[in-house]
Fold this sequence. Notes:
two-stranded antiparallel ribbon; globular
Amino acid sequence: MEYEDFEIKPEHNASVRTLINRLGQSVEVELPEVHWQYFDWLADTDEDMIAWVKRVDAIRRHHGEKLTMTQQMVANLQYDERKRYLTGKTCPLIISPEGYQQDDYLGSSVEEGYAPVGRMLENGRGQLENAVVHQEHWDYYDWLVEQGQDVVPWVKDFDKKRPPEKAFGEWLIMLLWLDMCTNYRDGKPLPFKGEPPGYDDFLLANSKPKS
Length: 211
């Protein structure tokens, strides 16, 4: 699905709810019935949906607000369902009852520079494997090379920890995202301005409990 082309249609049985965006403002968001059902299911799993909506809006703003809030939420709700399904986690498959294929981790191309591109890299077994990621991830990878980082052993070492259900490209995206977030947290240079998408999730996962 090209999310920038997504439009609400009568058969979606859509409804509007008032949510709080990244700036703390009240915004009205219209979603199809199945997406609200999945949204409510996430809430029932004890997911903090106020924080979740703010993260989604942060991602939307990071990419230049090329998607509406409706389009971004449709994309992220489906991404969440897809990720849970492919990693074997509990998932009701409300949005896509037929399930997902492994390559779906790439999502859809929603803007120039976001289209999937494959390159042959050395994996954790020392074999060349096609890593398919978005062009923006290759841009960051190439920037690391320009900074003098020896990325070949770096990628190989991380790939040795890859679960069997993960694609090489999906695991590489995780590595690059972790590196972006770590550098941003530590105040190190990055090739872009602002915090990386999903930075709040990174902080939550890497926060130390108070003693």
